[in-house]
Amino acid sequence: SLLYLQEPSNKRVRPLARVTSLANLISPVRNGAVRRFGQTIQSFALRSDSKSPSCTQKSCSRSAAPTPPKRRNSVLWSEMLDVNMKESLSTKEIKRQEAIYEMSRGEQDLIEDLKLARKAYHDPMLKLSIMSEEELNHIFGDLDSYIPLHEDLLASLGEATKPDGTVEQIGPILVKWLPRLHAYKGYCSNQLAAKALLDQKKQDRRVQDFLQRCLESPFSRKLDLWSFLDIPRSRLVKYPLLLKEILRHTPKDHPDIQILEEAISIIQGVLSDINLKKGESECQYYIDKLEYLDEKQKDPRIEGSKALLCHGELKNKNGHKLYVFLFQDILVLTRPVTRNERQAYQVYRQPIPVQELILEDLQDGDVKMGGSFRGAFGNSDKAKNIFRVRFQDPSPGQSHTLQANDVFHKQQWVNCIRTAIAPFQQSAAAAELKELPELSEESEENNPSTPNIKAQKRQSVMSGITEMELDESMSECSSIQDSEEAKGVKTPRTSFGHRKTREKQLSGKRKETLV
């Protein structure tokens, strides 16, 4: 006991205790598996310490801190150079080498995290029967298959590194390697379903306890499981930034200039393809979760959708929460429901095809919201952040006044809907303008002294053409100018003197026909 009292007070054993306390998750029969898992966790902690650039007294003492740091300790490339080498390089070249080293170090960190996700999460949960193999495969996907991919790039960068630590040319390596990132299409497309399953499994007490204990362990760097599973995606979007940084510090006459520009074009194309595939997968994921109360609600445009432009929670005029989906060709309003612990979406009213969709951007206070909504707006009872969607044809009688959480989300919805209906507005406007020459001929045939011109009433909301806009379009033809003047409409092409003469000729003969 005397030796125990004389031990230094800074001795830390708590992180190890946290790891070995995983034994509480299983029956005593599985103690051997827990013991092996504890040893695995310890090996990860020791390995991460040994892989640091230099195990100085400062870094070792930091590992003994009560709260482990979330991020790895990184060393800049320039900090590893001796003074003579540093003086022989220009500032621009040092920054270029820093950017190349950052890419290499990032690959090494990614490989370690992918291996950690497998050994510290997947394998223990499988051995302890916390999740089934099918569930784990659905959540983790083929994560292991990407480790050799990144190891190849890291090895190529290592071979290109000179003894002094510099890399002369990196462009050819990247141009050859970057197209292989298309392999991530499947993994990224499955992320939405994987996240949903993981969130569902977190309701299980054993899963929740296991993940919490891992989160409190030093090896996790205070990152949860999903953060590790999302690391490949976040790495993908960093590649264009890293390449542009290398290109920015590369001299104009360097042979890497054109090759790096080609590499940037390649990675942007890869990301575009991955995003397209991920968007299609997300769209199909939500389509499969739709429930129809009536066969009339089913629309082939829903099943045929390949893109989901916008989706999220809104409230209707009665204060009920709706989950709204704007697919590429149709707007679907739903009510969130739970079926056997799984999220589903019950279609509410009749879906509105985009080509028949009318959008009204309402001002704050234009509509008073009813139902349980009243208390949210105090005494004024005036709603904010609202807009209305409805059918072009009023016969179905469907109109939905919707409210977003804030002005930002309202603007997002308004912009998305406007973008979706814009092609149909343009085609409708073209159809209207196509009829204008016929109107012009009819106007020329009539005697100006006895005009019987009647303004045609049109749906201005859908076509985007008001009566005045139509008159302005007609004024571009000389024959239409006469009819405009007969209606008393001033056109920008008509001079003051000419207008005055025409008014004298028509004085006492015309009738006001504007409606």
UniProtKB/TrEMBL annotation:
Q: Where is the PH domain?
A: 307-422
Per the UniProt entry, what are the Gene Ontology biological process annotations, in alphabetical order? intracellular signal transduction; positive regulation of Rho protein signal transduction
Pfam families found in the cross-reference section: RhoGEF (PF00621), SOS1_NGEF_PH (PF22697)
Q: Where is the DH domain?
A: 95-277
Asked if the Swiss-Prot or TrEMBL record annotates the protein with the keyword Disulfide bond, the reply is no
Write out the annotated subcellular location: Cytoplasm
Sequence segments annotated as region (Disordered) = 48-71, 436-515
Bias (Polar residues) occurs at: 48-64
**Entry's SUPFAM superfamilies?**
DBL homology domain (DH-domain), PH domain-like
Cellular component annotations (GO), alphabetically ordered = cytoplasm
Could you tell me where the Basic and acidic residues compositional bias lies? Answer: 503-515
Listed GO molecular functions?
guanyl-nucleotide exchange factor activity
Instruction: Tell me where the signal peptide lies.
Output: none
Q: Which PANTHER family match?
A: NEUROEPITHELIAL CELL-TRANSFORMING GENE 1 PROTEIN, RHO GUANINE NUCLEOTIDE EXCHANGE FACTOR AT 64C, ISOFORM A
Q: What is this protein called?
A: ARHG8 protein
Keywords (A to Z) from UniProt = Cytoplasm, Guanine-nucleotide releasing factor
Where is it chiefly localized? cytoplasm
* Cross-referenced InterPro entries: DBL_dom_sf (IPR035899), DH_dom (IPR000219), Endocytic_GEF_Adapter (IPR051480), GDS_CDC24_CS (IPR001331), Net1_PH (IPR037853), PH-like_dom_sf (IPR011993), PH_domain (IPR001849), SOS1_NGEF_PH (IPR055251)
Q: Which organism is it from?
A: Syrrhaptes paradoxus (Pallas's sandgrouse)
